[in-house]
Amino acid sequence: MPTTEKLTKTTVDALEYDPNGKKNQLYFEQITPGFGVQVSPSCKTFILSYRTKVGQARRTALGKYGALTVEQARDLARMKLADVAEGKDPVAEAAQLRAAADLERGALTVAQAGEKYLAWADANRKATTAIEYRRIWKKNVVPAIGTKKLLAVTPADVADIKLALADRKPMANAVVNLIHNFYNWCSEGEGNLLPEGTPNPARKKK
Question: 203 versus 38: which is more confidently predicted?
Answer without folding.
Answer: 38
